[in-house]
Amino acid sequence: xxxxxxxxxxxxxxxxxxxxxxxxxxxxxxRILYLDTGAMYRALAYLALQTRNEADxxxxxxxxxxxxxxxxxxxxxxxxxxxxFAGDRELDEAVLQSNEVTAVVSTIAAHPKVRExxxxxxxxxxxxxxxxxxxxxxxxxxxxxxxxxxxxxxxVGARVERxxxxxxxxxVDVNEHRLAEEIEERDRLDRSRAVSPLVPAPDAxxxxxxxxxxxxxxxxxxxxxxxxx
Length: 229
Ligand code: DC
Hints:
This protein is an alpha/beta fold and 229 residues long. It has a single domain, classed as P-loop containing nucleotide triphosphate hydrolases (Rossmann fold, 3-Layer(aba) Sandwich), CATH 3.40.50. 50% of the residues lie in helices and 16% in strands. It has a five-stranded parallel β-sheet with strand order 2-6-1-7-8. A three-stranded antiparallel β-sheet has the order 3-4-5, with helices on one face. The longest helix has 17 residues, at 176-192. Residues 15, 37-38, 41-42, 105-106, 109, 135-137, 186, 190 line the site of 2'-deoxycytidine-5'-monophosphate.
């Protein structure tokens, strides 16, 4: 498939809906840029924890962002599908997905000025070329003109199971009961925040992956991408 120079594919959805796996695979298939924007909010959560800053202190978080740039570079061969740095430290999946980071990231992502800084950086990355970007507000706020918008959902049960597998593979301790609570709490925080809450864009295609595997989801999305051209 020849790819238009400005192709933007937005993949949004709740925690553990499979967005990052699907977005990463799709970008590899199309050989275009991939970015999981959740990793950027997680990188800031990591910095806040390292420097003992409170997740609800927006001013301190903004100062942290000034002092330690969160930098993303495209690298299809990297395990995440891109590389991410907080200051001069490169972050891997075990750090980004740690329970400590997950516990504070939704609070951090609710601050309007933090979001402004992240959205600005995300739009700059999208200017580098055709891109698949995963997150919560990509189709609604970051790339509102994206040619393809997918809102990926799945039942809480399916999402808990997926996240368990993902965390175990990354070497993170898992307690299934806590996992369900954590996912439901993050859904609540992400959906109810005042700025850029998690909602499907009006022109998004809703794809429910509760009972279909990643291959089927990819087929459905590839068909939507094909029809958009
Ligand atoms: O997708 P994830 O679980 O890695 O996202 C981590 C948190 O970051 C999530 O609780 C909500 C927030 N987030 C966001 O608000 N906007 C985005 N574009 C991506 C993530």
